[in-house]
Amino acid sequence: MADLAYYVIQMALFILIAPLVGGIIKKIKAFTQKRKGAPVYQVYLDIIKLFTKDTVVSNQASWVFTATPYIVFASAAAACAFVPVLPGIAMKPLPGDIFMVIYILLLGKFFMAISGLDTGSTFGGMGSSREMMISAIFEPSLIVAVITLGFSAKSTSLGDIMLHSARLGPAIVQPSYMLLLVSLVLILIAESSRIPLDDPSTHLELTMVHEAMILEYSGRYLALMELASLIKQLIFITIIANVFIPAGILVYAGSGFAVLMVSLLAYVAKVAAISVAVACIEASTVKLRFFSIPNLAALSFIASFVGFLQYFTGGGN
Amino acid sequence: MEIMQLLSVLILLSCFVLVANKRTKSYIRTFQAQSALLAIAAFILGMENLSGHGAIEIMFVCLLIVTLKVYYIPKLLSHTFANVDYKVEKNFFYNIPLLVLVSCAIAVFNYFSISSAIGGKPTELGMYLANSVSVIFIGFFFMISRKKAIGQIVGLLVMENGIFVAALFASGGMPVLVDVGIFIDLITAVIIMGIMVFKINEELETTDINKLKRLRG
Amino acid sequence: MISYLLLLPLVSIVAFWLAKRASQIFALGIAAALIMLSAGVKLSIDVAALGHVNKRYLMNFYVDSLSIIVLDLVLAVSLFVIIYCAGYFKKELERGKTDIKRLRLFYSLLFAFMFSMILLLTTPNMGIMWIAIEATTLASVFLVGFENNKRSLEASWKYIIICSVGIAIALLGIILLHISSIGIIKDAGTDLSWTYLYEHAKELDVNLLRLAFIFMLVGFGTKAGLAPMHTWLPDAHSQAPSPVSAMLSGVLLNNAMYGIMRGLAILNKAMGSGSFAGAALMALGLLSILTAAVFILTQRDYKRLLAYSSIEHMGIIALGLGVFTPASVLASLMHMINHSFTKSMLFLSAGNIYQRYGSKDIYKVKGLYKSMPITGVVFMLGIFAITGMPPFSIFSSELGMVVALFKNGSYFAGAAFLFLLALVFVGFAVTLFKIFYGNAKGEQQKSLKPSPYADIVLVAMLGVITVTGVFMPDGVLKLLTDAQRIVTGG
Question: What confidence tens digit (pLDDT) does each residue in C175-221 have?
Fold first, then answer.
């Protein structure tokens, strides 16, 4: 019973914090453009507003179109159950590891892609094919990075991985972990559709990837899709925060309420710091030409591959 | 020391970033970043040496690295290439992801051959050596994969950086006189290559090295 | 003695920029070269008597029989080349193809080049040796590109890039040598010192030493023109002005070989039988001779042909070093001397031909005997000499090499060597004999005849290679034997 409560609270936490991350990124980007920008909680208000609006569905669409937003949201919410915020607390871990997370998210992505094709508009199809290509070329680096983390922690459960790196020190300086960090940051940018891979605020037909797939959605469907992509972004940020900056996650159940609150605050601070970093990366580069994206993917792949190599030839830690 | 291992790996990573780039300004910036990492490593070693033996030699080398490689040579290169060339390289022999994967293969090959040449067991010295020799070979590979003159000059500079990395990490530096001499040689070489690039641009209207094809056989 | 050798080039460079007329520059150059040669001879006598000479001015300087041989070659060939330059540039100034400012630049760069080579040969510190080798590349880049046309620009770009890359790899080798010696160095004086490393060679880390030697071989081999790193050599040596080509072929390649020899000496002393190093050197040597033979067969440019011949002879020296018996190493050292004189003589006569005919193409040069008899005879005899005819010196060193090869049991290498030498002779004969016959175009003007300085030099060098072919003075033989003992470790 306590376990169920724990997982429910964790999922609720994710869903609540995710739009905050989006808001922070938008605010930092506004600062770099010398604007004041919308307040940080604006994203919440936007999503609530969308829930109250009507939906417009094309008469060419099939059941896929109307089912997809629920499927995508459900997959994102389910995935975030496996990503522990405070890994020490879970008493009985859910049977599922990081590969489960990756492939549940991939389920959502698949449905998003075919729904883009469903309405018969050209933008949707174009967005779907581009999204699939980006996903395909970033997948090897993600898998290699995850495998290395798994070898290092001797288990692929995310909780074990995070606890292992917490034992290594408050901030990771191992060479192989540093390379994996670089690789995972690039993957984060790819999965959350940020510049330099994809501009999240554009609707120019030749440049949008993620936006193209959700172009036809409106009302509560759009709200669910937006929320789902924000949750996905937060999942990856949490993985990076807890695995590579493990300060403050070594709390166990029964450590007292105050300690728990402090770790939670530490987690929120880490997430905020990483979102600021992502926003700065976004503000300082340009969107790449689509055929230059394999260059970034290759860089990410060899960063994780050399990290894997470094782990083995460095004697293994 | 862990931070030295980290710096050694970051320098290798900057080599990969170099190969993945297309803009000439980015070549120079990446070289600058790599030299900055090298300067940090020299600084840390120098501090250690200073407090341990009271020898200021490595700090002096660190200072040299900062003034020459981080500041002066990139300035010289940007000035030379500001008016000479296109800003983005368009033609490559093979596309960039393939080049990046080849440089990864170079790093892998080096890891295995150097550890087996040294003795078989993975040691810290072996890792430092493998990283530095990878930087040297990736710099060389970068040189041969670019068609414009700036690619060759930056490749040579990255090779020299790799040699410094080898000297610094694996053996705590060379005698100061040798280091100073190497720097002087490097600066002179870069100046001479800059002059030659101007001359080539004057005679041939381009700095595309592939067009230098008159001497065959 | 050593101080003269080091200071005189620097003083001369300053003097060149103060001189007002061309004739002053010529005279200064010849005087400086003469003084340096006499200092070198005196030094050789000292070394032959004492075994080695040590001096200290700010840094340690050390000359033993191996360095003194190469040093004497540098000084002797430089003297011949500088005398030739007087005549060559007098003609160039008369024809208006150059002016006194460029002449000053040429002489300054030439003497800077000589200074770096002398530094290379007199320092025991491997790091300073590396700096000096890089300095020779940098000093000679503008000499190679002196004529400022598209082809020489291409040649000098290739030269600086490929040689810098090669030398960088050699530096990696030297650093690995340094790392392998970390356990045994005591203070700053012995760090990277060749004499110290040679003495304590058995205490070095063998694995790192092996790696170090491979990198040094590839790096210095690039500068020496061993295949497959030779690609800069035909361009650089053919596009440079002829005195520079003579210096590059006759002197610089030897210095690079010297670097390899120093490394080889340490490796052999540390590892006992230098089996893998020997195999590598033999392979590179044979590959160089093969590459040179193949390209010589199809050349149109006579200077490029001579450049490929340099590659061939460097391959022969490497082959001798690879076999590693005392007889073959002695033959290699002798071959170094013989090749220097013969090749410089050939390049200087080629300079005369180029000045007269204005073209490097074999098909455009006809009737050499009729238009320039002395140059013609010297060039023809030089071609015979370089391909190994008796009584010239190259014959004796090649014979020594073949005998050493067969005595050592490397029958395949010996047979391949003989076959490739024959191929090279065929290549020379087929291409070069065209230029001697036929009718010369252009009148027999006085201005087109080569200057008397040039003729004197050519005949003198021809005399040297004839004499050394039949007779080797005892002192020189003793130096050679000592040097061979240094390389093979006693």
Answer: 888 888 887 776 666 678 888 888 888 888 888 888 889 999 999 99
Instruction: Look at residue B217 and tell me if it is in a domain.
Output: no
Is residue B61 one of the residues assigned to a domain? yes
Interface of A with B (CB under 8 A): 173-176, 178-179, 182, 292, 294-299, 301-303, 305-306, 309-310, 312-315
DSSP states along C126-139:
HHHHHHHHHHHHHH
pLDDT band for position C441 (cuts 50, 70, 90): low
Residue C273 has pLDDT above 70, yes or no: no
Range of the domain at B22: 2-211
Neighbours of chain B (3+ CB pairs under 8 A): A, C
Exposure on the CB side of residue C458, measured as CA atoms within 13 A: 28
The number of domains in chain A is: 1
Sequence-ordered list of residues with C-beta below 8 angstroms from that of A50, at least 6 positions apart, any chain: A219, A220, A222, A223, A226
- Looking up tokens 């890994």, which residue turns up? A87
Mean pLDDT within C94-119? 89
Please return the burial class of B90, using the count of CB atoms within 10 Å of its CB with bins 0-12, 13-18 and 19+: exposed
Q: DSSP letter for B168, please.
A: I
Average pLDDT, chain B: 85
The residue among A235, A224, A269 whose CA lies nearest residue A101 is A235
For the question of whether the overall pTM of this predicted structure is more than 0.90, the answer is no
Whether B91 maps to a domain, the answer reads yes
Could you report the predicted ipTM of this complex, rounded to two decimals?
Answer: 0.91
Interface mutation vs chain B, best among A134, A181, A299, most B CBs within 10 Å: A299
Residue B216 domain flag:
no
Interface test with C, best of B57, B131, B185 (most C CBs within 10 A): B185
Q: Strand, helix or coil at C52? A: strand
**For residues C338-354, average pLDDT:** 91
Residue A80 belongs to domain spanning: 2-313
Instruction: Report the number of distinct structural domains present in chain B.
Output: 1
Question: What residues have CB less than 8 Å from A95, skipping those under 6 apart?
Answer: none
Smallest Cα–Cα separation from C378: which of C409, C352, C414? C352
